[in-house]
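Retro notes, item 3 of 5
We never archived the inputs for the S-adenosylmethionine complex last cycle. Fixing that now. Sequence and ligand:
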Amino acid sequence: EPHLTAAGVDAYLTSKLAHPDYASDPALLRGLARADEAGLPKIAVTPQLGQFLAVLTKAVKAERVLEIGTLGGYSTAFFAKALPRTGQIDTIEYSPQHAKVAQANFLDLDLFPFPTVHVGPALDILRDPAGPFAAPPGEIDPGYDVVFVDADKEAYFDYFVEALRLTKSGGVIVFDNAIRGGRIAVPDGAEVPSDATGLRKIFDWIQADAGKTVLSAAIQTVGDKNWDGFAIVYKN
Ligand code: SAM
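Structure as it came back at the time:
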């Protein structure tokens, strides 16, 4: 029976829960089509995860959001929509072609705040001493309320280090693709798949931290994207 599949349930949930200003905004649907036409991979968050990110942004009353991995700007749009008009959203994308599609989508969506796309390898941009992410959080730059990491999995630990530096105390960091079809939990001694090494290093760090710096959870998901999940890290 078609409805007894994870993808069928996702379709049902979206048919019920898609908000007119969020997942069922026609401009957002046009944006997905534009990304398809441009040949971008179909690896954006699901409508449900997008709306979850919007709920999170609103619930923590975020003013500033940082995203690593823009693609066509689908998830970025959920953040921009959930932010107050005084808010700020920075998103980092390696591919100039992806960034260009995202920019076209942001214009079509008429987003406010309008996302700033930083084009290039995320680690170089985040670590550039003369770049926009150089300043440690202080009075002028209070840091980010939400950081969403959704880019090359191999670099996740390095993104975690930068995200912790850039996140406000009381802010959250969300890592997409934290479960990878279960590959995150290979038994001790077994070879760790390359898309899970970064996350495992983060989890080792969190274990060693023993609650001093962060409080975290990882949630497994099924649905359109098969067996995967996300991790959420609250900075004390
Ligand atoms: N967050 C997007 C969404 O849900 O709509 C999906 C992002 S997609 C899963 C990952 C993106 O990260 C791709 O567009 C890819 O080009 C980008 N990426 C990969 N490696 C990167 C790097 N080193 N620096 C910045 N972006 C990178």
